[in-house]
Each structure stands twice: as C-alpha cells, then as structure tokens.
Design a protein that fits this description.
Layout lengths: L1 E6 L2 H11 L3 E3 L2 E4 L2 E5 L5 E3 L2 H4 L20 E3 L4 H11 L4 E7 L4 H13 L6 E3 L7 H9 L2 E2 L4 H29 L9 H12 L1
Parallel strand pairs: 1-4, 1-7, 7-8
Antiparallel strand pairs: 2-3, 3-4, 5-6, 8-9
C-alpha cells in the first residue's frame, strides 16, 4: 500500500521524493519506500466557463447578467491532461491507502489540492504537510508532524471564496464592459484596481 504525495510543482516533488526515498522514476511520479510522489503544474483544475455551467450563458447579452451559478463545476485546465490523468489515477488507485497534500503552505496551495481532490471524487484519507522550507531537515520534520486535512478546512473555504469571487467579478464585469463599449475588455477583481493605480500614478 502507498501514500500518494501531491506537490505543487515537479521541482518540489523531487525534493520531497529524495528525502522520502522515492527514487524510482515513473511516468509523472516518483516511487519508493511506500510513497508515490507526484505533482501538479500549478492549477490542474479550475472553475468551468459560463457556457459549461448553463448553455444560456454561451451568448453574451445584458439579459444574461448577472450570471450567478447555482453550482460550481470543476474542469481540467488546458494543456495539463497527461499529468492530471496521472494524478487522478494515483489518487484513486486500489493500493493507495492515504493522500498527503504537499502543495505550498498557503491559501492558493490549499485550493490547488482541494480542487484536484474534489475533481477526482477521491475519498481516501488526507493528511497535510505544512512546511515553509525545502531543506531535508525541514521536510523530515514536516513528514513526522503531518496534520489532519480537516485542520485546514477554513483555509480551503477562504480559497474557494476567493476563486468564486474572481469568477463572479471577471465573468460578469468583463461581459458587461465589453457589451457597453463594443470591444473585448477584461475586468478582474485584482487586475482592474491594480491597473487603475498604475494609470493614476502615471498621470
């Protein structure tokens, strides 16, 4: 039986695998000493586009605004299919006894893991590696002090809220401004106020 470790990127996975003794290279992961260490490539999974949530939202019109999803389906990001397939297979493998979330210690890292885990419809038990350094000593200490995933549920909720807020602002306001000015305009929760600050400073 194996513990599947999901890191946020390949370089981190290699550092973790070296400490754990998972030195056998496989397609999309490293294996050894009871561990399978794999990786995301940033966000493997994200919120669906409007048309995938509701066919009525495929046409840009004022009448469709605001778009307020009743549910939030997840879809694979473009160009990550091969690695996502590896991760999904490992998470749900019959010989996987647990999953270790080893994405970055923060809100975004938590979201990357939770979205993949939910997309996989995985029900294996999860523990969380929470470290801020990738030295061998720090990694060893972290694996000796793995925490229950439930300890980070509030962080995951905050991450989902941020993700959905980005969707609501970006999808609705981008369409509203594009329709208003008859141009393809991009509006974002962070990018637009940041752009305003840059413009004001330049002026």
């Amino acid at each position: 039986m194996y513990s599947v470790v999901l890191a946020e990127k390949p370089s981190v996975a290699r550092d973790l695998a070296e400490v754990l003794g998972a030195t056998a290279r496989r397609q999309g992961y490293l294996e050894g000493e009871g561990y399978r260490v794999t990786w995301a490539i940033g966000h493997l999974v994200g919120l669906a586009e409007p048309a995938a949530m509701d066919p009525a939202w495929s046409r840009w019109s004022y009448g469709a605004l605001p778009m307020l999803p009743a549910r939030w389906p997840l879809v694979a990001r473009e160009r990550v299919g091969e690695q996502l397939s590896v991760v999904l297979r490992l998470l749900n493998a019959a010989d996987t006894r647990e999953v270790i979330c080893a994405t970055d210690a923060g809100r975004e890292g938590e979201l990357i893991f939770r979205y993949v885990y939910e997309h996989a419809r995985c029900h294996k038990p999860v523990r969380r590696l929470w470290i801020s350094s990738l030295t061998p000593d720090a990694i060893e200490r972290g694996f000796r002090a793995l925490k229950p995933a439930a300890d980070f549920d509030a962080l995951a909720d905050a991450a989902r809220a941020r993700s959905r807020a980005d969707w609501l602002v970006g999808m609705n306001l981008s369409r509203a401004y594009s329709l208003r000015y008859d141009d393809h305009l991009s509006v974002g929760r962070v990018q637009t106020p940041t752009l305003a600050l840059v413009v004001e400073r330049d002026l």
